[in-house]
Design a protein that fits this description.
107 residues
Length: 107
């Protein structure tokens, strides 16, 4: 936690505290199922207290990467087999603040 305190000429003062993350966030990625033809919801965890500007989703099945402003997305897989999903999390300053990868077996 970082705290800043300011004082004025009349002797008044005030302070503000905030949580500061140093290094990457402990980002997690979970899913809601894995059946071909059925929508699967993927949800990012570990970013509740972070100021996130976007989530960049990457798929190994030929789907183009895309951004969402929220920590969840839904995808439908049309083929069976192992799938690798990666999400990169970007803060308000556009710097990558975390990454998570999940491997699922679509059966």
């Amino acid at each position: 936690t970082a705290t800043a305190t300011a004082s004025d000429a009349a002797g008044g003062s005030g302070s503000l505290s905030t949580t500061v993350f140093v290094g990457a966030l402990p980002v997690t990625l979970s899913n809601s199922g894995s059946t071909p033809g059925a929508p699967v919801t993927f949800t990012v965890g570990g970013t509740t207290n972070a100021q996130v500007s976007r989530y960049n989703w990457n798929w190994d099945d030929g789907t183009a990467p895309y951004d969402t402003s929220g920590p969840s997305t839904t995808k439908t897989f049309t083929t069976r087999g192992q799938k690798t999903i990666r999400v990169d999390v970007f803060g308000v300053g556009c710097a990558k603040i975390g990454t998570a990868t999940l491997v699922i077996n679509v059966t």
